[in-house]
């Protein structure tokens, strides 16, 4: 093509519409100055359009429609396609340094758990951006910081912020699949007795009734695979003014740990809505009070007390302890009396050092979540 009538146009993969303007000029044997006179645009504007340096605006498209007898939407569509291609090119250029960001996430586990939808032609960075619904690592940082998480423990325990954020996002997405009614505190308190009864069920049977009972009161309850370097046991979070979330990991292997964590998070929902709307209980392997962030001490103590007293009424427990008979049979009978699973009673007695850590464990339910050792031991970021 002869481009002697104007500056040389270098086409992109999606060409700038100025290239077509140049073709029409050549077809009509017009100069750029002639086109300027016919359209009422300045010679400089025509020159920049032909050089691919200026866009075709709606007003310009209408002028070209009248001069070249090609509809305005044709010129605008060409401009839109070019603008989109240019924007994607700029993102690709900027993304050349984003791989280091993606490598900080436990990509292998996230893919294994089905959290990332890596489509054909999509790399890990794009998959992560889609997962978090952000446009860049900078946007991800902004969104994560705005979440304003309150951690159970102090940050000195070198947690992976990336893995923690990935777990939180997976919990959000899982909760989005559940239908819940608007939050109703009175209704939630009214189903606590039924939730306690669920502790007597087999672990594989509890998810549906717990989700149904809590969902009817405006609380989505989800179970999400844990990730390495997070130490998360669960979280309590307000997703909106009318919807709360309780998310639990699969890191605990016995029913007493699972249920105490659930009722602990329920305590945060009922007691700390205004003071701590997003609590992440990151306990590592140590549940001792010495790891609790001083700013969280009161809230954690209150949630612990709520869980302990809800599961086993204090008066009943005190009477049982005074009797001083802690055989498997007596523990089982006491659990029947108060309406909870016997493993709950064993866990409480072990926590209070009435039983040693090895006593009564036959009464606990062992939880098999279907996670292989390879899954649970896979650590670190990257693929």
From TrEMBL:
Residues 30-75 form the HTH cro/C1-type domain. Pfam families: HTH_3, Peptidase_M78. This is HigA family addiction module antidote protein. It comes from Polyangium jinanense. Gene3D superfamilies: 1.10.10.2910, lambda repressor-like DNA-binding domains. Belongs to the short-chain fatty acyl-CoA assimilation regulator (ScfR) family. The lineage of its organism: Bacteria, Pseudomonadati, Myxococcota, Polyangia, Polyangiales. InterPro entries: Cro/C1-type_HTH, IrrE_HExxH, Lambda_DNA-bd_dom_sf, Rad_response_metalloprotease, Toxin_antidote_HigA. One of its GO terms (molecular function) is DNA binding.
């Amino acid at each position: 093509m002869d481009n002697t009538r104007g500056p040389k146009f270098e086409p992109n993969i999606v060409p700038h519409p100025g290239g077509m303007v140049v073709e029409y000029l050549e077809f009509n044997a017009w100069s750029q100055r002639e086109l300027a006179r016919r359209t009422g645009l300045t010679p400089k504007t025509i020159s920049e359009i032909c050089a691919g340096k200026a866009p075709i605006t709606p007003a310009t498209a209408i002028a070209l429609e009248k001069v070249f007898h090609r509809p305005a939407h044709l010129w605008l569509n060409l401009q839109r396609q070019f603008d989109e291609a240019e924007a994607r090119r700029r993102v690709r250029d900027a993304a050349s340094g984003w791989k280091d960001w993606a490598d900080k996430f436990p990509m292998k586990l996230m893919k294994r758990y089905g959290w990332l939808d890596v489509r054909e032609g999509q790399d890990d960075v794009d998959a992560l951006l889609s997962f978090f619904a952000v446009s860049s690592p900078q946007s991800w940082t902004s969104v994560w910081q705005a979440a304003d998480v309150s951690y159970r423990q102090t940050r000195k325990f070198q947690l992976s912020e990336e893995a923690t954020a990935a777990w939180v996002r997976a919990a959000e997405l899982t909760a989005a699949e559940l239908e819940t009614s608007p939050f109703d505190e009175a209704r939630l308190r009214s189903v606590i007795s039924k939730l306690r009864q669920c502790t007597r069920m087999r672990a594989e049977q509890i998810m549906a009734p717990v989700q149904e009972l809590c969902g009817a009161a405006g609380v989505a309850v989800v179970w999400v695979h844990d990730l390495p370097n997070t130490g998360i046991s669960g979280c309590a979070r307000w997703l909106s003014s009318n919807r709360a979330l309780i998310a639990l990991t699969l890191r605990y292997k016995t029913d007493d740990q699972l249920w105490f964590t659930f009722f602990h998070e329920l305590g945060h929902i009922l007691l700390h809505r205004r003071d701590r709307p997003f609590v992440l209980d990151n306990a590592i392997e140590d549940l001792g009070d010495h790891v609790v962030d001083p700013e969280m001490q009161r809230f954690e103590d209150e949630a612990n007390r709520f869980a302990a007293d809800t599961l086993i009424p204090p008066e009943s427990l005190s009477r049982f302890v005074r009797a001083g008979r802690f055989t498997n049979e007596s523990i089982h009978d006491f659990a029947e009396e108060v309406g909870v699973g016997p493993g709950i009673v064993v866990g409480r007695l072990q926590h209070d050092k009435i039983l040693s850590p090895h006593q009564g464990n036959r009464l606990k339910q062992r939880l098999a979540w279907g996670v292989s050792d390879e899954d649970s031991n896979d650590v670190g970021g990257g693929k």
